[in-house]
């Protein structure tokens, strides 16, 4: 892959990279279409990265519908698909590791120790292999986006990070590869994640600036409308990810709900 992309770089062409773990949905496809519009060449990586899964997480069960993914990529006109094996990406035990600092000590990072260390490791490798001009990441994983932007700054990568708005179903549920694990009843309930965030935005627009009140309203709404476990509702500054008590500046309202077979996250940046 390095030889292929370096050829385009020497020709002065721009390269767009969309990193994915497969099980592609409309959120992924939106990023790819934007990359195709904005770059001479678009590369999509499909790699289920073991380093970002904890010991009790769903690495083995993570959906891998590669053939159907490939058909979607052909239909929208992606130029290259990078689909390495684990052995190709990690031919031996890593003797050097990357540790994410305070940005990974909250929210998903706090619940999943080591997760973002695995994310930045694989993203660094992808940037070195593909050498993209632009790389596309969804705002649905807003903490991941903030960490990758900081990684690019700290390690002096030349790649430009392009954030992409959350793509939602018609009823508001954020599109996710894990939505397939929801039962029919849970799928009906899952719409209330985005509705709870809209409730918080409405209260914010009405002048509410106390985080505990917004968190309480979201939590009470979810308790009334979903059967899943409310894992977290939190408000942080963005992209600094510092906990907010009295809200000032741009904020990130994040929530996580654990259903029977799927842990869903959603967020809104205000």
UniProtKB/TrEMBL annotation:
Molecular function terms from GO: ligase activity
Superkingdom per UniProt: Bacteria
Pathway: Cofactor biosynthesis; (R)-pantothenate biosynthesis; (R)-pantothenate from (R)-pantoate and beta-alanine: step 1/1
EC assignment: 6.3.2.1
Residues annotated to bind ATP: 21-28, 138-141, 167, 175-178
Location(s) in or outside the cell: Cytoplasm
Enzyme class, UniProt record, top EC level: ligase
UniProt-annotated binding residues for beta-alanine: 52
Major site of localization recorded for this protein: cytoplasm
Active site: 28 (proton donor)
Binding sites annotated in the UniProt record for (R)-pantoate: 52, 144
InterPro entries for the chain: Pantoate_ligase (IPR003721), Pantoate_ligase_C (IPR042176), Rossmann-like_a/b/a_fold (IPR014729)
Reactions listed under catalytic activity: (R)-pantoate + beta-alanine + ATP = (R)-pantothenate + AMP + diphosphate + H(+)
Record keywords: ATP-binding, Cytoplasm, Ligase, Nucleotide-binding, Pantothenate biosynthesis
Remarks, miscellaneous: The reaction proceeds by a bi uni uni bi ping pong mechanism.
Annotated family: Belongs to the pantothenate synthetase family.
PANTHER family xrefs: CYTIDYLATE KINASE/PANTOATE-BETA-ALANINE LIGASE, PANTOATE--BETA-ALANINE LIGASE
Functional description taken from the UniProt entry: Catalyzes the condensation of pantoate with beta-alanine in an ATP-dependent reaction via a pantoyl-adenylate intermediate.
Subunit structure: Homodimer.
Protein name: Pantothenate synthetase
Native source species: Mammaliicoccus fleurettii
Higher taxonomy: Bacteria, Bacillati, Bacillota, Bacilli, Bacillales
Gene encoding the protein: panC
